[in-house]
Amino acid sequence: MKSISIIKPDDWHLHLREGQILEAVLPATINSFRRAIVMPNLIPPVTNVEMAMTYRQDILNVCPADCVFEPLMTLYLTDHTLPAEVQAAAENPHIHAFKLYPVGVTTNSASGVTSLPDLMPTLEAMAEYQLPLLVHGEVTDPTIDVFDREAVFIEHVMSPLLDAVPGLKVVFEHLTTRQGVEFVIDAGDNVAATLTAHHLLLNRNAMFNQGICPHHYCLPVLKREEHRQALLAVAVSGNHKFFLGTDSAPHDRARKESSCGCGGIFSAPVALELYAQIFEDNNALDKLEGFASLYGPEFYGLPVNQERITLKNEAWQVPTIIQAGTEEIVPLCAGEILRWRLGTDRAEPEKGSGNS
Length: 356
Ligand code: NCD
Ligand code: ZN
What we know:
This protein is an alpha/beta fold and 356 residues long. Helix content is 32%, strand content 17%. Helix 3 (83-90) runs parallel beside helix 4 (120-129).
């Protein structure tokens, strides 16, 4: 296969940050994706409609004039989020979901939720307005093994939540385990999941390859090969509940290469190319378009993009560093040769289509 053309994909889970990092990382996403669900874990977190509109404008200000990229905003759920905020979000055309971070679970989650049962009226409002809850599905109990935290979350938090609010739309973000795959398959059509390129590509050995590899550390942490195989199987199966979400999470190099390095893999410059490689390696290139461009909009109730992109079978070398003002970001696969490359016509809309 020399090249493939698919409907331009969307990224259903993305960290864009702010300031000089935002400026440096946005072009990579714009090249590959028409829209992206933008995570709200800034400092301070994006907890209300006004903050989300300010952040959206900051992102649009960095987009080139002719660009058709659309940021899909989310609000950060806290212990203090009221049903009225859910209504305001539902009435705003640019806000598409709430994000649940259990308190302390990951980068910038200090304002996260301490007790879901205390948020019932707010969660019921989300169900009423059919505004999805995007879930970072891990418990934070330090006595639970870090590799088991997703499976324990399913049993102790996710199942009871869906029993209590059966109409809630949920996206289980960056799913990493066989148990997670089974849970989402068995759940109703109101439950879906995003899969990252790095969890499809790597198992936990990648963090300990002749030494500790901080640029392969993310949350949820990479798991055993058995789990990667379960993710792969469902990604290429054509199941509409599983779609693309990179969780591209840039950090300054010094914060990663540290005695206590933070979680997050910056995959935006290579993600789409890696998904193509992974699907090809599993004889499923024909399933890439559904996973990358169709099932996400279907779940979110949004139109399918009109633009197309071309991926060519052409070797290229990933840069070792992306400079972000005074900061440096190391991308996934830094310095490696990848075999799929975005075509030069990648950003061009089809005739007659525009930024609608
Ligand atoms: C993300 C970040 O850096 O904001 N980190 C990560 O390891 N994925 C947060 C998240 O999605 O957990
Ligand atoms: Zn994330």
